Amino acid sequence: MHSSPNLTLNGVDLLADLSGALLWPDRRLLVVADLHLEKGSAFAQRGQLLPPYDTGATLARLEGVIERHQPETVICLGDSFHDRRAADRLSRPDAERIARLTAARDWIWVTGNHDPEPPAHLGGRIADAVTLGALCFRHEATAGAGGGGGGEVSGHYHPVAAVRARGRRVRARCFASDGKRLIMPSFGAYTGGLNVLDRVLAPLLGRRFQVHIMGREKLFEFPSARLEPDLERAFRMPAASGVVG
Amino acid sequence: MDDLSPPDTLLPPNFLGWFSSRGWAPHAHQIEMLKAARDGDNALLIAPTGGGKTLSGFLPSLIDLSERPREGMHTLYISPLKALAVDIQRNLESPVAELRLPIRTETRTGDTSAAKRQRQRSKPPQVLMTTPESLALMLSYTDAEKIFKGLRCVVIDELHALAGTKRGDLLALGLARLARLAPLCRRVGLSATVAHPADLRAYLSKTGRADGGDVRTVLGRTGARAQVDILTTRERLPWSGRMAVHSLGEVYDRIRAAGTTLVFVNTRAQAEIVFQELWRLNEDGLAIALHHGSLSAEQRRKVEAAMSKGSLRAVVATSSLDLGIDWAAVDLVVQVGAPKGVSRLLQRIGRANHRLDEASRAVLVPANRFEVLECRAAVQSIESRTLDGDPTRPGGLDVLAQHILGMGCAGAFAADELYGEVTSAAPYAGLSRQDFDDVLDFVATGGYALGSYDRFKRLTLSDEDGLYRPASPVVSRQYRMNVGTIVAAVTLKVRLGRGAVLGEIEESFVQSLLPGDTFLFAGQLLKFLGIQETTVNCAKGGQGDPKIPAYAGSKMPLSSHLADQVRAMLSDPTVWTDLPPAVQEWLRLQRLRSLLPTRDGLLVETFPRGKQHFMVAYCFEGRNAHQTLGMLLTRRMERAGLKPLGFVATDYVLSVWSLKPVKDVDSLFDQDMLGDDLEAWMDESSMLRRTFRNVAVISCLIERRHPGQEKTGRQVTFSSDLIYDVLRKYEPNHVLLRATRADAAGGLTDVRRLSDMLARVKGRITHKPLPRVSPLAVPVLLEVGREQVFGSALDDLLDEAAQELIDEAMPELKEADGQRGGGRGGGQGALPL
Questions:
Q1: Closest approach of chain A CAs to the CA of B506, in angstroms?
Q2: Among A residues 93-152, those touching chain B with beta carbons less than 8 Å apart
Q3: What is the dihedral of CA B89, B94, B96, B97, to 10 degrees?
Q4: Where is the composition biased (Gly residues) (chain B) (predicted)?
Q5: Do B452 and A91 touch (CB under 8 A)?
Q6: Superfamily for domain range B227-384
Q7: What order do you get walking across the sheet with B501-506 strand by strand?
Q8: Which of A173-182, B72-81, B349-358 has the lowest mean pLDDT?
Q9: In a domain, A99, yes or no
Q10: A52 falls within a domain
């Protein structure tokens, strides 16, 4: 492992990687969330012929980060496959790439809402959640519930954060953490995002948290107070009072 | 000889009677149009506004239908504006009613009800008024042949405004299909005066070529030459800025002295400010209204109606009023800010006083010194009757993709036959078979080298008959929900209290607002309260400096023709006598302290200022080309170790500043910058991303709407940026990326103009090192910090945001790091002036 840890979760030193993966150096563990493999072909099925390179692109990035960090264990935090039939649509070379990845190390497919039953024929173990030491790894964060002493790592929400610079707004994927709970960015090539200030995330992250925004060359850390909401949810007015909230 | 046949043999007695009952006599060009119809020729009528142009287009059809009444669609009228189609239909009603002609005229636009559309399909009216988009839709029906096979004439109004645009491409393809469905159908184009009539002849020809020999050109009577003045302000002439607020008192005086005035401006932001300022001055309470494309249709219709009734004294308008039916009452046109192009200026001036025998009156109001030169150049061009007009560009491949999909919906087709049909449309006359096949493959299967979508085709090719057909009925539904080439920015409705919707503003602007902020919109000062669904809620009034909505793509660059005229004027002091004294003085000082730019060369000045070194290049190629040049120069300077800090581009000049001085100007401006650097920058540029989004939507790769999801607020269902990144990496030569680069080269990046300039000035660059800023450079230096520069890298901006945070926490560090904030391709370093 090359880089030094840049965040602490429930007392555990972790490394948020520029690729969008999370590393636990002490345990030689690598975590990725929301690969959404074969999302492109899911759109193609209903007539939108998006470029069919998303699975290849996602796997190439995954192979790259595994090559750099040589983890002993890999956890895919759910929604690894875009839908139940996604694995059937994989091209043979892509399926073989996945099989090679899962055969070379301990590999865990955590179940997600898109893939409640990940395919068994591609190798790896399947689990609804994994607890290791002080941290629990699951697809979707649950309010109030932690695992193994309260630390939790999850995906599902595809968090993005926006900041303003020089009058312009910059929006990119991010890691979001309040010290106890970490929500990971999506790793898939065709996955959009939800602003971390969205009210859906409020019960999970609270008012004060930190984000690591993924730039092109490095990560940028900001406190939540520095972030900008997205428009749709920005200043939504409670229907009755008309007070800006 | 035929051509000497007296008019009355062409104009039947009942029509002659109708003309004389109105006190009219048929114009010569109207008779010429009748002759073209009699001979079965296509016709291009070029005439200034006024003078019964539209009637000339319809007259042959009305006579034919009067003499040979029949059912079924006879004439199709196509207008670029929905509102114009409606107005023309109303105007045509009066001869039809008064002559008791057996003709039904109807409109069909996006607003037409489903029931009426259905009726028009089963029982078409004799004359149908519609838009290019609605025509495309009708041509995709499986019964299109039945609807159109008896068509005898298609009239295209405001042809000059359609040809050369993507809508024009779509219409050209539609006309090619019509020619197959209705071989006897003639084409009639109505156009304002243009620089290249041959391009319009090609557009109308069924051969797609200007020399096809099947289009007769008819010239309308040219009216009295317009009387155009430049307002020489009593106030101090500003060095920079675009709002011309200093002159508005004098503009107000002109409005008061005239009957009805049209005040044209260049951007919607300008419209809001000029309107606001005129009302501040409006002690007489004159009825002055506002009209621009972001206002609600209802608001605009109200203004137009008030205008027709003659109850307004002035309207402040953007290009939203460039086209439209004639208002006889307008007797003065004011153009605030630079005209940007002669053709557009003439079109605007033509909206005053449509009586041809009287000169139109117009006043140009320059906002700054360079604009004085531009206005002067425009007036000279009008006097010498030279027009600007870009040479035609090939039709967009994205539009072709949409059309092919539509033709698939209409019925099975063979590739060879469709290729023949498509290349008979002028914009696609030069389309290679390879490009056609690539686009067809994209439509059918996505056209990806990986070829993994065999199972998900949109069109299937039959082995038996070699024909393409839609793979499922969903394909047709998807096409029909996404037809058209106008890709609007994401906008939100602006609602005042619980009352009316005032119009729409762009999402990006709303994102810059905080609750309580004020902004100018629809001529009112509004306070931003919040967002509800897709509506911006506002109250009247509020405190603080109002913001003004910025609208994407609303700035039009200076035309090449005007730029050339401005350069000519600068280089020839003998013509300066026509200029205001302040401008003459400015140019004389420039000659004394530095050099004057020459007509064919390029003047580049360098001078130190503070701790920085400035370079100013007098290119006159328009803002877009200058921005591209700025990006490329700063990349190159970065590599040469000159440490560039930023640049600013105006329509006239480009200024770049750096920590080290530029010495070798010739090699810096070498044409080879258009190679790898251009490619590398273009790929990263946000302009390419924006262009790709449009291409992806028009080509139907991304849907605006999907069956069953009509009512989502967001118009685009999938982020085009994600697709762009993946496609660029895995298939950089995909047909959609080729289409994107071609679009950008002529549009937002204006690479074509830049490359022309670099070729022109090669070996003619004059480098003038100066001890300090020159008079001519002052305006651009004043723009520093005011102009938005696009395309900064993500990391630069994030770095800056992070740095701000550090500065806030530890202000003492800020002083020590004074030169920060530049970076390649980026910044707006503060310039102390």
A1: 11
A2: none
A3: 130
A4: 819-833
A5: yes
A6: P-loop containing nucleotide triphosphate hydrolases (3.40.50.300)
A7: B501-506, B491-496, B535-540, B524-532, B518-521
A8: B349-358
A9: yes
A10: yes
Q: Which domain holds residue A165?
A: 7-234
The Cα-based distances of B272 to A6, B169, B522, B546, B548 in angstroms read 49, 33, 7, 11, 8
What is the per-residue pLDDT for B47? Answer: 85
Mean pLDDT of B779-795: 61
Measured between CA atoms, how close is A3 to chain B, in angstroms?
Answer: 20
- Residue B531 with chain A: CB contacts under 8 Å: 231-232, 234-237
Residue A241: per-residue pLDDT: 26
CATH code of domain B2-219 = 3.40.50.300
Q: Is B807 on the interface with A (CB under 8 A)?
A: no
Helix (H) or strand (E) holding B193: none
Distance (Å, rounded) from C-alpha B768 to C-alpha B373?
22
**Across chain B, what does the average pLDDT equal?**
85
pLDDT tens by residue, B571-582: 999 999 989 999
- For B531, the closest of A52, A228, A235 (CB atoms) is A235
**Measured between alpha carbons, how far is B707 from B479 in angstroms, rounded to an integer?**
10
Instruction: Give the residue from chain A lying closest to B730, CA to CA.
Output: A53
C-beta atoms of B474 and A226 within 8 A = no
The pLDDT value recorded for residue A143 is: 75
Distance from the A54 Cα atom to the nearest Cα atom in chain B, whole angstroms: 7
E strand residue ranges, B569-622: 602-609, 612-617
The answer to the question of residue A240 being in a domain is no
Q: Give the per-residue pLDDT at B792.
A: 46
* Mean of pLDDT values over A4-11: 90
**Bridge partners, B493 (sequence order):** B504, B535
Q: Which residues of chain A have a CB within 8 Å of the CB of B537?
A: 237
CA distance linking residue A49 with residue B451, whole number of Å: 11
Contact state of A235 with B530 under an 8 Å Cβ cutoff: yes
Q: Are residues A216 and B793, on separate chains, in Cβ contact within 8 Å? A: yes
How many structural domains compose chain A? Answer: 1
Burial class (CB in 10 A: 0-12, 13-18, 19+), A116: exposed
How does pLDDT run across A127-161, given as a tens digit for each residue? 999 999 999 999 999 876 544 458 999 999 999 99
Q: Is B797 on the interface with A (CB under 8 A)?
A: yes
Same fold, B2-219 and B227-384: yes
pLDDT in tens, B461-492: 999 999 999 998 889 988 998 888 877 666 78
Average the pLDDT over B614-634 and give the result: 90
- Select the residue of A54, A226, A237 nearest B726 (Cβ to Cβ): A54
pLDDT digits (tens, 9 = 90+) for A188-210: 998 888 899 988 888 898 789 99
Cβ contact A53–B448 (<8 Å): yes
| Interchain pair A216, B510: CB under 8 A | no
Q: What CA–CA distance (Å, rounded) separates B60 from B36?
A: 9
- The pair of three-digit structure tokens given for residue A204, joined into one six-digit string: 């999970």
Does the pTM surpass 0.90? The reply is no
Does ipTM top 0.90?
Answer: no
Mean pLDDT of B353-376: 83
The more confident residue out of A40 and A242 is A40
State the pLDDT at residue B512. 67
Distance CA B647, CA B651 (A): 14
Instruction: Say if A239 falls within a structural domain.
Output: no
Q: Does B24 touch chain A (CB under 8 A)?
A: no
Q: Flag whether residue A190 sits within 8 Å of chain B, measured between CB atoms.
A: yes
Instruction: Kindly determine whether residue B793 and residue A168, on different chains, have CB atoms separated by under 8 Å.
Output: no
Domain spans in chain B, listed from the N-terminal domain onward:
2-219, 227-384, 397-485+688-745, 491-540, 588-670+750-791+806-816
Question: Who contacts A102 (Cβ-Cβ below 8 Å, separation ≥6)?
Answer: A122, A123, A124
CATH of the domain at A94: 3.60.21
β-pairing, B153-156 with B186-191? parallel
